[in-house]
Amino acid sequence: MSFRHLQDRSVKYFLLAGASVSIVVVVLIFAFLIREALPYMKSPGLGSFFSERWAPTSPLKAGYGLLPLVAGSAMVTILATLIAIPFGVCGAVYIAEIAGKRERELLKPFIEMIAAIPSVVLGFFGLVVLAPIVKSAFGLPTGLTGLTGAVLLAFMAVPTIMSISEDAIRNVPRSYLDASLALGANRVQTIFKIVVPAAMSGIIASIMLGMGRVVGETMAVIMVTGNAAQFRFTPLVQIRTMTATIAAEMGEVTNGSTHYQALFWVGIVLLFVTFCINLVALRVLRTYRRA
Amino acid sequence: MVITMPAAFTIERHGDPVEFKPKVVARHLSFYYGAVQALFDINLTIPENQVTALIGPSGCGKSTFLRTLNRMNDTIDGTRLEGKITIDNQDIYKNGTDVVTLRKRVGMVFQKSNPFPKSIFENIAYGPKIHGIRNKAVLEELVEQSLKRAGLWEEVKDRLHLNALDLSGGQQQRLCIARALAVDPEILLMDEPASALDPRATARIEDLISELRSDYTIVIVTHNMQQAARVSQYTAFFMEGRLVEFDDTEKLFTKPKEKQTEDYVTGRFG
Asked: Please, which of A78, B132, B232, B258 could form a disulfide with B53 given CB 3.0 to 4.6 Å?
């Protein structure tokens, strides 16, 4: 075997090893989560999760109901996404189709910079500015509510939605625009009847990716949602998300206790949800790239 | 500069003078992409209900000229036009001209077929819909008529809700012709409509052009001189942004007046 051949092979394996690391890490994380969480299935059993009471440290009777946490995460995520969609998509249409070149060069980096703000700093903003507004607008006893968290998270989802949607819209072939304009359609008709529908799968993917970001977000929600695990279907009360629960309780829990295992189950549920959302988003994104 | 437009014009057809109604008239037309001049003082009269071919080497300005006729060049930033173009004696670059109405009258078929990623039906119905037709029965009728005119109806009538992108290349181009016809234009501009098609699909498009001539004024840009000879009655030869010669197609190909035309049609360059 020549030196060159050997060199070729070794470089190949080196790169392969690099590429494999991330896969191995993901598998290990998953295995680790399962291992730590597994004893819970025997006692007290998975059935205990289907309860409305999350009170793992209660001295009388501990409650491990995941329903308020899942509902809290779901409510904040869905609300944040609904708030972010109009801003993200309209902004993307504006930047891609209407803004002039200089406007675009100014706007796009600016919006993408929002994504670079540390979430703890956004949490400050939520605490000091947003929470008092929510409090006085709805006449609530506290401004730390699900709605406050949702608005803050929407702010974090907008850059993702806008940036990927804008790409999708700009990737719509120029020939579709020409065909529409040549038929006598005006610019607005062309944008909303041809360009946006043609970019729809990319726009949907951007929304899913924005949602994936929102579900997993921890710091901002822990700061502004009040963290009371209530199973109530209104965004105007304190809520607690899955991420906030893990972050707040993991540091103080006894290693190996039932509470400890329950928190690992919360982590598994969270991982499963983000995994599904991202998988769907990538699927949709791939079909649109092919088309 | 006073620019006058002729009410009628006479041109030879197979050696005999024939009088035509001028449909499109360009006078002293110059066109600029930014600082680059693409057309130089073009004077051309296009007869009604005839096929006029625009030929010439790449970059000669024939496509640019074609796109001035439905103001598609307006969609490109930094372009400028001098001179005058009239359709039925109306100046189409006059201030206040409604570009939407103009483009409804002047349909266009592009070099690369560009159906929308929608169903066959929606592709054809798009134009009528944006011009205000909502009635479903009327739309269905229009779709059928347009597809029949474009010679595509028999092939697609059972699958109108199939995605247009699943059609073959030749079918897609005929769909684009049908889509242009659906808004009931008077003039049809074709920018190398068959350049991406195989010989059989090309033949179908050429037959179609001949059939459509009785109802539409057709202007076709083509690279292919045989095609110009087959489908057109009149031919304009462009070179380096100038109109070199315009004549009866047969005459232009057999007895050109200009040396440049002769060199080009005999294949000495281009």
From this structure: B232
